[in-house]
Amino acid sequence: MTTAAFDARPVNLHRRARAANARLRWLLLTMMLLNVLVWGGMIAALRGVVDVHGTVDQAWALGSTWLAALPHLSVTITR
């Protein structure tokens, strides 16, 4: 007589739980890496290593270049 605790075959519930745990581990690792990136950027900005205003200006220039490169669409809605 075997019980579920000693059964060698994984139950579907255990498989789903393991998959959920794996996803949570990846999410946690990603969150930790992004947190380190954000805090590192804040510390670098405070120490003067990174010019925040220059970086923002570059981002705006890059964004406006991409928007200017997109074809302009004219959409007219009629009934």
Output the radius of gyration. Answer: 26 Å
Distance between the termini: 73 Å
Structural class: mainly alpha
Helical content class: 55-70%
Percent strand equals under 5%
Question: What's the arrangement of secondary structure elements?
Answer:
Elements: H1 12-47, H2 52-69
Explained architecture:
This protein is an all-alpha fold. It has one domain (4-69). The protein has helices at residues 12-47, 52-69.
How would you describe this structure in keywords?
79 residues; 2 helices; flat; single chain
Report a brief summary of the structure:
By secondary structure, the chain is an all-alpha fold. The chain has 2 helices and no strands.
